[in-house]
Predict the structure.
Amino acid sequence: MAKVVKAVRGMNDILPGEAYQWHFFEQTVQDWLAMYGYRCIRTPLVEHTDLFVRSIGEVTDIVEKEMYSFVDHLNNDRLALRPEGTAACVRAVIEHNLLYAGPQRLSYSGPMFRHERPQKGRYRQFHQVGVEALGYSGPDIDAELIVMCARLWQMLGITGLRLEIGTLGSAESRALHRTRLIKYFEQYAKHLDEDANRRLHTNPLRILDSKNPEMQPIIEQAPKLIDDLDEPSRIHFEMLQLLLREQGVQFEINLRLVRGLDYYNRTVFEWVTDKLGAQSAVCAGGRYDGLIEQIGGKPAPACGFAMGVERLLVLMHECGKEIEPLLPDAYIVHQGEQATSFAWKTAEFLRETGCRVILHCGGGSFKSQMKKADASGARYAIIIGDDEASAGEVTLKPMRLAADQARVDLHALSDLIKT
Ligand code: ATP
Ligand code: MG
């Protein structure tokens, strides 16, 4: 036998037995985005590597170790599978000059790729829904993004998420903070791990994000950005908190929130759960006022977030949200030449009226066909023999109710099925 080819590690198939949960999620997300006036944008899965290096930042986990970057040997382009959606969305907005028409509320969804160690809730191909508000500078849009998240959790039946918010200040206050951080961490260079030492002079803010327990005491005592915060950023942060309180959204302030990408400033936030073990972040985002200019666009402020679909689906399950698959209304069993031809006619007639119908294919006895009808989960079996066919009728048998079967014509049939 030929050797079996398997899926790539960390990249999952979504089988029919779980696909309907994805459909429910996607449909809910579509409804939710429409409620807030966010329009869909679709960008390619592959972009120039340079786009991600310049936006996410050279000295970040994603760019240093997680990005699927490769040379397209057909023309020597350096390309990458997108590890996140914001950079591509911003690239498209610049390329098509969308901000010319005014600020844009946009969203995207689809697979992202990161070469991480696969484990529960962490995959190499995973899915995100992202929301970006471009051209808006005020804390009102930051608040809108957070408030809309809260509504989505409610629509999905997810409870118990904690919201953490923080601020990174302006580029200037970050620069000041950066100098202070470098000075501080230099005193402890001997106690820093390899990653931290490498980042000490390039990206010291990222050291704060380290998960190394041995470094936590040093990180705890590090200078806090809030003390270096510029006045407009402080006011922005205050206003955001005010708006969230007004909307009844609870939050915790986490001044250590750094985020794994370089492009954020001012507001950052994360929705976290205790129900998924180490993989606790389900949605994260913030403001990125400098990014559009950084990748060649006319300067414009922006803010957005992305959520991890796999983690949210598990969480929905953990929260007891049951989603029923969409089952067929009827399964048609048939035997005999005339019966089969009438069975086709019946199936198309019912579909015309909006019914979900499975027409048995492949022959077999009535008994074996009835077993398939039962296994399909259909509410009704429609039985057609030549006897029924010559009368222009069918036998309708309820599969889930203790009701009798009945001989009916096609018009009565569609009425019965739809009630
Ligand atoms: P983490 O700290 O878990 O690595 P992150 O900060 O790298 O997350 P973001 O880049 O902010 O994640 O992406 C937003 C969301 O996408 C995360 O909150 C998470 O729910 C999801 N996500 C990120 N990486 C993965 C992955 N490898 N597999 C599954 N979901 C992921
Ligand atoms: Mg990560």
Summary: The mean pLDDT is 94. The longest strand covers residues 104-113. Residues 158 and 176 are 40 Å apart (CA to CA). The pocket of adenosine-5'-triphosphate (ligand 1) is lined by residues 84, 114, 116, 121-123, 126, 128, 260, 279, 281-284, 306-308, 310-311 (CB under 6 Å).
